[in-house]
Amino acid sequence: MKSNTLAIHEGTLKDRVTGGVNTPLYTSSACNYMDRGEAVYPRYFNAPNQDAVARKLAALEHAEAGLVFSSGMGAMSTSILAYAGSGDHVVMLDALYGGTHHFATEWFSHFGIDCTFTLTSAEDVIRKVTPKTKVIVIESPTNPLLAVVDIEKIAQFAKEKKITTIIDNTFASPVNQTPLDLGIDIVVHSGTKYLGGHSDLCCGMVACSKEKMARILSLAKVLGPSLDPRLCHLLERSMKTLFLRVKAQTRNAMEVASFLETRPAVEKVYYPGLEAFEGHEIAKRQMTGFGAMLSFEIRGHDPDRFIESLCLIRPAVSLGGVESTICPPGRTSHAKMSAEERKRVGVTDGLLRLSVGLEDAEDLKQDLDAALHKISKDI
Ligand SMILES: *Cc1c(COP(=O)(O)O)cnc(C)c1O
Description:
Number of helices: 14
CATH architecture of the largest domain: 3-Layer(aba) Sandwich
Bound molecules: pyridoxal-5'-phosphate
Order of helices and strands: HHEHEHEHEHEHEEHHHEHEHEEHEH
CATH topology of the largest domain: Aspartate Aminotransferase, domain 2
Number of domains: 2
CATH class of the largest domain: Alpha Beta
CATH superfamily of the largest domain: Type I PLP-dependent aspartate aminotransferase-like (Major domain)
Strand content: 15-25%
Shape: globular
Distance between the termini: 56 Å
Helix content: 25-40%
């Protein structure tokens, strides 16, 4: 069956009491242990509502196994620590999610893990690998500059060297990219974004082979970042509309990006769907859609004035909701970086990151156009 069908039906549990079409909500944290190998217990990641969403994600990512976590960082940190330990070396993209970057710079040494950061290019990732490298962590497209790396190239190289590859697939979502098909070992999501999709829950997910999942699950059970069954229930409802939402948001993003490209006050638009964009060719090969995140720079204007001039698009961190949101990464997600480092990775003060929602594209374009006119008149 196709993924949009599986998003609705896979994993959903039969309701034997009423015959209802939704997975019943199982809230018990004390369950019978008789006639069972392991009792059901939410911190063991084996509660029925956890299992339902985990199966859905596994189906969408073309994986044998899935696991749901209480946050994206819970999913990412557990996955890395399951495969890298004392004396090991990790290669990580420099431009990936701030929390993952921070985990490496602040905490890896505590675990005896050595880390090398790389540019957003497969060649540089491969160059930085040493005989001690156990894990490669990548993200594509990246936050906030939407840079794209050749996933298959990295995955194939790592397979030959028996290095475990982890990708953060949050920005693309399984609707637009399924990295396991390109040879990646472990896919991680911040489910807080597109999987949840309504800006009202925090969760994370992992999808991989059963073999790779065994260590992640074993570590997860003792670290304990499990998601409450009540939130799994809410997440399951969201995941049923994932394809409908993300496909429409992706269409909107293409329209908005093309529109911004034509505006004189806009210096540059970062969106993998634009032909002029650097990562476009690789994106076309490895993505089925270009996603609903984009960034742009406005020429010589105060980004705060621009954001204040918007009526419909809301200023907010986080992303992936049905409502369009905007933020200046230099002052939000990348605020911890020094000004110099921000400049080096290309996060300028005038950079704005837009999460394109489900509103009508005409309304979004009008809102952006009106704000651009307004700030142009100010000077
Ligand atoms: C938000 C985000 C995360 C972290 O997820 P949380 O659910 O906030 O822990 C990781 N990666 C990317 C790309 C994100 O956008």
